[in-house]
Amino acid sequence: MPHPPPYSLADFDYALPPELIAQYPLTERSASRLLDGRGDVAADRQFTELPALLQPGDLLVFNNTKVLNARLRAVKATGGVVEVLVERLLSPTLALTQLRSSHAPKPGTRIVIAGKHPAEIVGRDERFFQVQLLDLASGNFETLMREEGELPLPPYMQRAASVADTTRYQTVYAQHEGAVAAPTAGLHFDEATLNACRSRGIEMAHVTLHVGAGTFLPVKTEIIAEHKMHRERYVLPQVTVDAITACKARGGRVVAVGTTSVRTLEGCVRECGELREHQGETDIFITPGVKFAVVDMMLTNFHLPKSTLLMLVSAFSGYEHIRSLYAHAINERYRFFSYGDAMLLQRSTA
Asked: Where are the beta strands (DSSP E) in the chain?
């Protein structure tokens, strides 16, 4: 029997063998597998087949954000170690962060970042802390991240970032710095695959959504409607709006590369009432029952249990269909999460 709405958090749980969580990227970006989930029955393919699965006149929409070296190391006056993950900059010397330490620091606590940059925790907003640099002569957070920061691999990669990650945890088209996590569906594309898409007559456009650290925060409310979604900054340029309008006019399909592209396009429509040039922030929370205004197809990776992104893809292609695709992927030993395999989805018409 199909599961009737409303859905609870437990409805988006699934058992994932730990060994299926990809800890490292494959040697070649496009060597990933591709689960073709457009039809009722899943089809196992390779990512290099993607251009042939699309049609001339379709439009791929990529997120061209670039990941910052947003993880910083600090110590408290007591000697306690603090890990600082910059979520976003509120000013050149004030950052909204996540902090990890044995005891959560209170506002007023002073820390020293990278052994030489004094700072103070000046406020807290639920799971996030505001950190103010105190020595203006020592620079700002952008400089600090560039010189002292580490690439912030997701928490399920239980290792430190390596030199290889500095390129592999960025898309080949990354352009605008501001994310603390990669838009991972785009990691599969290399220049050969992009060129194959162009040769087939598939158009391309870009948005920018700076993925925040909140993307990894778990949903803690059993009633999912009570979850407070994190906000992320985005830019939707006029050239992309024009490309989407032209695509729809010629009967092509808008193919969002990743959930971040989906959130940008659908978030703009929700905020502005239409798709138009815009920049701002979105906290759109897409769950089953939400209707899509722009996106026809989606390329995405596999998402964590009980995550908002699993809810998003369930809204897009249908709850039962996504459950069956994930069961198939686990049975066929697909690789999961950021460095894992990809899935191609079609918008449900139900």
From this structure: 33-36, 43-46, 59-63, 65-67, 71-76, 81-91, 94-100, 110-113, 117-125, 128-133, 176-179, 203-209, 232-236, 254-257, 278-282, 297-301, 342-346
pTM of the model: 0.94
- Region 262-282: mean pLDDT is 97
Full residue range of the structural domain in which residue 293 is found = 9-67+164-346
Which residues lie closer than 8 Å to 79 by C-beta, 6 or more apart?
none
> 233 with 280: CB under 8 angstroms?
yes
Helix (H) and strand (E) counts for the chain?
8, 17
- Chain segment 95-141, per-residue pLDDT in tens: 999 999 988 889 999 999 999 999 999 999 878 999 999 987 767 99
Contact 159, 75 (CB under 8 A): no
The most distant pair of C-alpha atoms in the chain lies apart, rounded to whole Å, by: 65
Q: Which among 97, 93, 108, 101 has a CA at the least distance from the CA of 75?
A: 101
DSSP SS3 for 217: coil
Q: Tens of pLDDT along 170-216?
A: 999 999 999 999 999 999 999 999 999 999 999 999 999 999 877 77
* Six token digits for residue 323: 């459950």
> Do residues 143 and 177 both lie within one domain?
no
* Co-location of 214 and 275 in the same domain: yes
CATH number at residue 192: 3.40.1780.10
Opening angle at CA 290, ends 253 and 63, nearest 5: 50
User: Looking at the structure, do residues 189 and 302 belong to the same domain, yes or no?
Assistant: yes
3-class DSSP assignment, residue 160: coil
